[in-house]
Automatic annotation (TrEMBL):
InterPro entries: DUF247_pln. The lineage of its organism: Eukaryota, Viridiplantae, Streptophyta, Embryophyta, Tracheophyta. PANTHER family: BNAA09G04570D PROTEIN, BNAC04G53230D PROTEIN. Pfam families: DUF247. This is Uncharacterized protein.
Amino acid sequence: MDQIDDNVSNDIKSLGASFRGKFEALYPLSSDCCIYRVLKKTRQLNEGLFTLHVVSIGPLHHGNEELQAMEEHKVRYLQQFLQRTQITLEDFLIFIKDKEEKLRNCYAETIPLGSQDFVEIILSDAVFLIEILLLSSFHKFRTSGDRIFGKPRLLREIMRDMWCQENQIPFFILEDLFELAKTRMIDECYEGVSMSKLVSNFCDYLCELVLIDKSLIEINFCEAKHFLDLLRRCIEPPDPPDHQLDIIRNEFIYNPSSPSITELHQAGVKFRVGSCNTLLDIRFDKGTLKIPKLRITTVSFFLLNVQIFEGLHCDTNFMNDYALLLSLLVTSPKDAELLIQIGIIETMESVAASNFYQQLGKKC
C-alpha cells in the first residue's frame, strides 16, 4: 500500500514539475498585443480572403514555400537601404535585438522562433516595407531592372498583402529603423522625409477607394499599431453622431423584422448617396436613408480585414455595425440592383454585391 502511495506521489511531483516548466516558458501578457491570427471559423468562410499572394511580413507566415520568391527581393532591398546610410548592418541587428521582447509582445501568440531567426525576419521585413514606401515616393531611389516597381501587377499584389490581417508588423519598428538610418545619412538623402509622410503618399489610392481624407493618414499614424489599424482609425468617424447611431441600431440592426432595401423602397423610404467624407456615415433622416458610395469590386478585401481586426482587438464596433446593417438591408440581388441604380454601390453586377454584403454579415 505504501509502495502505491509512493508511486502516486512521484506521479504528482512529476506532473507538478511539468506544469511549472510550462509556466516558465510563458511570455508575459502585454498591452502591446495587436497582431492576431484569423479565427478558424472565420477563415473557413472565405479562405482566399486571408491567403497571402506574394509576400510574408513578420513571423506568422515566414517560411511559406509559395512566398519564397519574394525573399530575394527582401535581401536586395536591405542592401539598397544600407547603401544610403552609414549605420552598419550589425548596428541595425543590435537595435532590433534590444527591442525583441516588445516586438514579440505585439503578437497574440508565442512565436516559436529563436532570437536570431526572429531578429533576422523583423529586420528583413521591416526594411522591405520601408523600401517599398521610399521607392513609391522617390523614383530616384529605384535601381534599373527593379523587379517590383517595374512590374505593376506584382506591386499591387504586395500592396494587397500589406493589409492582410495576419501579415502585419508594428509601425514603431519601421519608424525607429528609419529614424536610426537618418542619423547618419549619405548625401542627406532622407532630409525632410518622415515615415508618416511616406505612408500617407503610399495610401493615396486607398484613401480614394474608402472615402478617407488623406490628411487622416498622418493624423492617425502616431497612434496606429500597424497598416490595418491605421486604416481602421481613418475609417471610424472621429465624432460619431450618437443619435444617428441609436436611430439606425433601433430601426434596423436590433429590429428582428428589419426590412430589406426593396421593402423600404416599396414603403416609401428614399435613398441617396451619402457623405463623401467617411464610409461609415450612414444617416436616416425624414424618410431618407443616406449611404456613402462603396466600390465593392476593389475595396471589399480591405473592409473585411478591418472588420476582422476590429472584432479581435477593439472595444468599438463601428465596422461590425456597418457590416450587419448592410447585410440586413441587402438580402438579394434585387436589393443590390436598386442601390446600384441609385449610385450607392459601384460594382460589376448585383449578385456580386449581394454576396459581398452577406459575407460581411457572417463575420459580425
